[in-house]
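Reopening: structure tokens for the 4-(N,N-dimethylamino)cinnamoyl-COA complex, inputs below.
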Amino acid sequence: MSWENILLEKEDGIAVLTINRPKALNALNAQTFYEMAEALEKIANDPEIKVLILTGAGEKSFVAGADIVYMKDFGGVEGREFALLGQRVMNMIEKLPQPVIAAVNGYALGGGCELAMCCDIRIAAENARFGQPEVALGVIPGFAGTQRLPRLVGKAVAKELLLTGEQIPAERAWQVGLVNHVVPASELLARAKAMAKRISANGQLAVKFAKEAVNNGLEMDVDRAMAYEADLFGLCFSTADRKEGMAAFVEKRKPQFQGK
Ligand code: DAK
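Re-run output (same inputs, fresh job):
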């Protein structure tokens, strides 16, 4: 498949999806979202892909937000359609069977910050900057930023970012728990790939169930969430990977997982 606004590469079980509109600092328009949806569908159904890394083209920006030029003449109905499209793609990422690492290589503003937040893990380059500047444009985040941000950093910091619209540097994003690691820009992709490799050495189904347990469990009351965890824990015992993992431990060798 050939796309205009994204690139998809795959090597050793790790896929890298790059938003590729560097002249517009990788801003998100509808076409980019449609292409991402196609790529994500393909990735979700590719058993060879164990981890996805999401990044932006160029050295300056991960994603500088929804495309303001594209949105500027929207009416209410188009605005709603665009918000629903963006939310659909971001939900696809959050619910992707494989873990998703955002390699944040610069600006992650507005829709870009929202895109990073729907990934499972965020690694930021030292020059990355995060923010939800929508209020400065007279709107609020439309891709679930008002919901995912407080779930990651707590209400107080989320409200500060959402109400001031201010940008924060990578180091501050790390302090408030918005990103997992901050690394030199030149090492960003290698560090993301190293983490992806580490994840892909584990039992693929166990990794998938762990992601599901966190994502779904956090939206339940704790008793239901623990029952849900117990169900997924039990399900692991029906997998070949669980047998292999435990046999390998007993036999003092490295496991050979099949993702089954
Ligand atoms: N959209 C479109 N083009 C953008 C862009 C964006 N978000 N950000 C940058 N660009 C373009 C610039 O227009 C410029 O294009 P040319 O003039 O060269 O053609 C090029 O990228 C380089 O940008 P700058 O010249 O501005 O570069 P600087 O280094 O000076 O500044 C910057 C970098 C990231 C600080 C600055 O570009 C900037 O402030 N960009 C806008 C950041 C922003 O406000 N992002 C949030 C966008 S709002 C909704 C759904 C979703 C949303 C809202 C509503 N519904 C439909 C309900 C979400 C909204 C957002 O994400």
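Residues 24-25, 27, 64-69, 79, 82-83, 86, 107, 109-111, 133-134, 137, 139, 141-143 surround 4-(N,N-dimethylamino)cinnamoyl-COA (CB under 6 Å). The radius of gyration is 19 Å. Marking as resolved unless the reporter disagrees.
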